[in-house]
Amino acid sequence: MSGEALLVFDDGLTAYDFGRGHPMSPIRVELTIKLARELGVLDQLKIVPAPVADDALLGTVHTAEYIAAVKRAGADPDESDPVHGLGTSDTYCFPHMHDVSARIAGASVEAARAVWEGDVLHAVNIAGGLHHAMPNQASGFCVYNDPAIAIQWLLDHGAERIAYVDVDVHHGDGVQTVFYNDPRVLTVSLHESPTTLFPGTGSAGETGGPDAEGTAVNVALPPGTGDAGWLRAFHAVVPDVVKAFRPQVLVTQHGCDSHVEDPLAHLTKTIDGQRAAYVALHDLAHQVTGGKWIATGGGGYAIIDVVPRAWTHLLAIVAGSPIDPATAVPEGWREEVQLRFGRVAPVRMTDGRDASYVDWSSGYNPDTWLDRAINATREASFPLLGLDPSY
Asked: Pick from 14, 31, 48, 136: most CB atoms within 10 A?
């Protein structure tokens, strides 16, 4: 097993572009790569270009009818196809939509292949994490569901137990749907409550299909949850369920739209809390899977102040060389932001917050929405995995 860590990236991935004014701007990926390069993070990663997934690979998760619809939409972006979720108010059609979406899927599969076949221990596709796409429908800015395709590739190549942990502010509904009745895949999602945020799913009671009870775990957090509450919830649920499942590989989705400055959601995390989550997932991979870890990006719409810093931390952690939060943001990067966007960029790789939390072992407080949410997940999911929710 090589100790190298892998980034699957080329500039073609930034062609995933819904156009001017759409929240999911490829600028966020471009600025992340530039910031990581200036901080020397990319020097610590093996970088390979993204292959394009063919129809057979896409078809392990998506229907042939849907793949054909995506191709038509990319050839004629002025035509909408609401039956397949294309050309809707959130997932616009754009030129060559199929090609770049297939490239993103191919990048996540290449990351999975490199880890599974022992080329590297960790691998990341920062442009991936399109977790809302369904087998026959686009949704929530997501065309092809690259995490699900990567997981299915792992299953088709011999993996028997895979854990997927999703820390995007939105429920990882597409990945959960694909594997809801597959006992080989544990899906865990920490997200804002479905009562207040798209896609309106991910309650604690969603625990898996009849052949896979206990393999879907959902923590639905109240709006306003910040670093301390989020980390309390994470550590009260995620390590226990992942360890109980005993996966061979850990796949993670790192949407950073849980940040207080994100315009599309209502949690109040900071860069420091997000970094702490990435460290915890890295450590969990080493505790449970021998370090076999595949990471993707995801949502995140504060495209200058938040996403580049958060994902540069992620890339550094994947590389095994975490960045000190007090590190200064390089002046060259800040000058580019000022020149291109007329914005004053952050000065440091931190929001200056203490990412500490009170552990669940301190006791359950039923007077708080947060603790009621955590407890609901533990009571719904823990017994199905052979765990005691009351400890």
From this structure: 31
In a domain, 390, yes or no: no
- The label of the residue with tokens 């590989």 reads 249
Interval 245-298: pLDDT, tens = 999 999 999 999 999 999 999 999 999 999 999 999 999 999 999 999 999 999
Please indicate, yes or no, if residue 317 is contained in any of the structural domains.
yes
Reduced to 3 states (helix: H, G, I; strand: E, B; else coil), residue 238 is helix
Residue 5 burial (C-beta neighbours within 10 Å; 0-12, 13-18, 19+)? buried
pTM, entire model: 0.98
Q: 98, 122, 132, 313: which is the annotated catalytic residue? A: 132
Residue 272 lies in a domain: yes
Q: Indicate whether 194 belongs to any domain.
A: yes
Tally of structural domains, the chain: 1
DSSP state of 255: -
132 is catalytic: yes
Sign of CA dihedral 131, 137, 138, 139: negative
CATH code, domain carrying 23: 3.40.800.20
In this structure, are residues 217 and 381 in contact, taking their beta carbons and an 8 Å threshold?
A: yes
